[in-house]
Amino acid sequence: MKRIMEILQHEVNEPTLYGWFHLMWLGIIIALGVFLIVKYRNSSEKTFKKIVFITWAIMFSFELYKQFVYSYEIENAIISWEYSFVGLPYQFCSTPLYLFPFLAFLNNGKAKDGLIVYTSTFSLFAGIAVLLYPDTVFVETLGINIQTMVHHGLQAVIGLFTLVYYKDRFSIKSFGYAAIVFIVMISVAIIGNEIGNAILINLGIDETVNLFYISRHGECVIIILSSIQQYVPHILFLIIYFIGFSLIAFVFYIIEKTFISRYYRLKQGN
User: Fold this and answer.
1) Burial class (CB in 10 A: 0-12, 13-18, 19+), 70
2) How far apart are CA 121 and CA 102, in angstroms?
3) How far, rounded to the nearest angstrom, does the alpha carbon of residue 179 sit from its chain's CA centroid?
4) What pLDDT, in 10s, does the model give residues 90-129?
5) Phi/psi zone of residue 74: left (φ > 0), alpha (ψ -120 to 50 degrees), beta?
6) What is the three-class DSSP state of 132?
7) What is the C-alpha separation between 42 and 106, in angstroms, rounded?
8) What's the rounded Cα separation, in Å, for the pair 105 and 80?
9) What DSSP assignment string belongs to 45-100?
10) Are 185 and 204 within 8 A, CB to CB?
């Protein structure tokens, strides 16, 4: 057991921004994205669902590894367990862990349309943002760095793949459904923060539950928002958080919709 723990927690020099480790994984992710889009963009919906589910299983397995590593410690040849509530896997970037199974198995309808556009805008942005600037998530544990790149890489790949596969399902109404998905996820985080922190206080545990980094009990670590949180009331911070990410996702939607429209014009021209 001790040997296994040492392997799982193998330490390395923290990767540098756009160093060899970062660039290697960017290359792998781009290659995977191109492969999926070229080979499976016209595949059956059954195949699409299999790809999404397999992707979710990989991401979920890596998340279990992450939780395991962050909870166990080896000190003086003694293994101890102490769960870190700060690492609860419910952040903006974590939403694929909960939504990809629905994307894979839901029948066509408003909910499916909302998930399609959410995955191709909100989730895609979250994945790309960390892939391009992983400096704050790189650590000295090799496995965690791999987990970070695999998780956010697959998140971005499935976002692009979903966009290409369901290009005819994009509409402003569907974006509205995607925004509702985001509202639901944020609402769960707000409720979870309040309940989680109340439980920890009652148990005398000196930790903070900070889902989506929007807890009034904790600090937001997201660039720009971390500064805004210090100067505005919490309710206004939540509104800014929602509007800010929704606007970015909408920009993604406009860009994607423009490319989709151009694709159909070129297709008709041929």
Assistant:
1) middle
2) 17
3) 16
4) 999 999 999 999 999 999 999 999 999 999 999 999 999 9
5) beta
6) helix
7) 19
8) 39
9) HHHHHHHHHHHHHHHHHHHHHHHHHHHEEEETTEEEE---GGG-S-SGGGTHHHHH
10) no
Q: Which two tokens stand for residue 15?
A: 């990767």
Q: Tokens 């990809």, residue?
A: 100
**Six-digit token pair at 150?**
């695999």
Tokens of 258: 């423009």
Query: C-alpha distances in angstroms, 248 versus 123, 212, 230?
Result: 11, 17, 22
Give pLDDT, residue 102.
Answer: 97
- Given a contact cutoff of 8 angstroms between Cβ atoms, the answer to whether 139 and 16 are in contact is no
Distance CA 256, CA 164 (A): 9
Query: Which residue from 56, 101, 84, 90 is spatially nearest to 188, judged by alpha carbons?
Result: 90
pTM of the model: 0.94
φ, ψ of residue 234 to 5 degrees: the values are: -60, -40
Task: Calculate the CA 137 to chain-centre distance.
Answer: 13
Longest dimension (CA), the chain: 71
Exposure string of 168-194, with b = 16+ CB inside 10 Å and e = fewer, is ebbeeebbebbbebbeebbeebbebbe
The C-alpha atoms of residue 79 and residue 64 are separated, in whole angstroms, by 18
Tens digit of each residue's pLDDT (9 = 90 or more) over 220-255: 989 899 999 999 999 999 999 999 999 999 999 999
Cα torsion angle, 230, 233, 237, 238, sign: positive
